[in-house]
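Protocol step 6 of 9: fold each sequence in the batch and record its structure tokens directly after the sequence line. For illustration, a two-sequence batch is reproduced in full.

Sequence one:
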Amino acid sequence: MTNPKTGEVLAMVSKPDFDPNKISDIWDDILANTTSSVLLNRVTQGLYPPGSTFKILTALEYIRENPENYQEYSFKCSGKFTNNEDAISCFHGTNHGTVDFTESFAKSCNSSFANIGLMLDRQQFKQTLDSLYINSSLPTDFPANVSRISDEILEDDGVMLQTVIGQGTTQMTPIQLAMITAMIANDGEMMLPYMIDHIETVDGTMVKQYEPTSLGQLITEQEAAALQEVMTAVVQEGTGTRLKSEGYSAAGKTGSAEFNDSSDSHAWFTGYTYDTEKPLQITVILEGAGSGGEYAVPMARRILDQYYGKN
């Protein structure tokens, strides 16, 4: 959870974890347990298929390539998209019917986004992703893994179809997705996440004050506004309606990211609050839980309700 205007990390939780107050007593046991992953910070070092949360980036590229007419887009979904031998199905084979651009995003229509993916300029798409630190190290002062897509999108339709819906070999860290989401909430300016506000001595003397650091206007205000609109539709009428609240306004994107041949899914939600003096960006992933709308969104709802005093 971050402040999208500053990059300040307000909360970072990774499970399973350990009690740092007992680390001297449990350290040897942790090291001896070769199956334990409590030392892995999943927020910064965990790599997962992002599922439909990646459609934020696919949508950005389509908007970027079609700034004047992206809202004129229309697609008739039958629950499945085929391209030669490649096939993409909507979640549980849902038939979304005729959808426009906003509905495609809000309802998370895989078939429509597969269609959009084949319309994109792949070289430009890769350049857009590279500009947002996909396939490169994040400039953070804490260890973070590199989020990646395959270069095969440039030549292979099947790889492209999987990538634009966040599947296949696509891998992303939660912190990377959080930075992208916060950038959209912050009108296109990406802020560097930081965890320490200041350092002081035991008597209160200031040693160092940390300040917000901008990584630049990585997308235009117009592109950010377009993404804000479709992300708001997710909560108002799409897969994230469980986040609708009278206490705060929220926008975001759900994801149900399949990670094995049994179609088991990680549940994702990434989003932000707006029209408030205390804006938040929040990203949630529940490993192996299932649908993002059914599991990650309610988790985000409980956190935001608590933060805004609506519990």
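Sequence two, same batch, same settings:
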Amino acid sequence: MGKKVTFNRTTLIHLLCWGLVLAFPLFLYRQNDTMTDMLRHYLRSLGGTLSWLTIFYLNYIYLVPKLLFENKRKRFVLYNIIAIFVLVAAMTWWWHLMGNLFPDSRPKPPILNAPPRWTRFVQMSFMLILVVGLSVAIRMSQRWHKLQEAKNEAERIRTDAELKNLRNQLNPHFLLNTLNNIYALIAFDPDKAQVAVGELSKLLRHALYDNQKHFVPLYKEVEFIENYIDLMKMRVTNNVKINTNIDINDDDSTPIAPLIFISLLENAFKHGISQAGEGEIDITITNKDDKITCEIVNTNHPKRDNDKSGSGIGLEQVAKRLELMYPDHYTWEKGLDTETNKYFSKIVLSR
């Protein structure tokens, strides 16, 4: 079995371009030219075309990648000078050979003030230099494209590694905060704490498995958020008002980065409830006009000095993940309204 030959797009472009160059002289004949005149004209022009093709691929295949890209510029220039000299001599010989084999039967008008022969040498050399420049430009363009692809691939690998590291940090951080909440619940309502452990298992299933994906369907993430809110409600008193406005369809499969909003919710329940068990938390999540919006507003009760819960890395992770997962496709507004003493955080993800 012979080896199967396949042509990629670059090969087809080369064949098409050189086919057009070879065919171009066919469009330059005059109406009164004989078949011999046409053949002579084409064969003489063929010598120049083959010289262009030779020096193009001499540079394209060998001189540019092996010498120019290896910083052997002097040898690159020297070899091209030698190649141009040889090809100009070959074109001149070919021109005279075709003229002798196919003499022009038409009378030639006398030429006054004919240019010296060396000008033709300069013209042919100049054309070959242009072809060398074209070969160098194409090769450098291809090299830049490959370097850019390699850079993009390296950036993708770095981003994936950083995201994986962030996810690995997020899971224990989320688990620690949730266990602290259940621990506090055990002290005054063991029955609720037992139910909370069952709810925690549902949350961990999403946090441990779905969080390993770059994106999950929006309805799954919303289901996780609702379970988390239900879990948090178990440990708060009736004096805490929790208002939720989640306007998401049950089958909304819009992709979203998993657990991207969880740190905002954790902060709302951590800082939105006073020592006396009072507070207000408003949670709004919508998906409209190709934008996913999560807005959380809560009363501001700063963490006490003796409160060692949390490590403060949650919001830092949110900022890093937003930049990695939604570069130039998100806005994040946050701050404290001093008039109402409420902290707000609003993230808008656009597609």
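Proceed to step 7 once all outputs are recorded. Observation for sequence two: Strands lie at 216-217, 240-247, 255-256, 279-288, 291-299, 330-337, 342-350.
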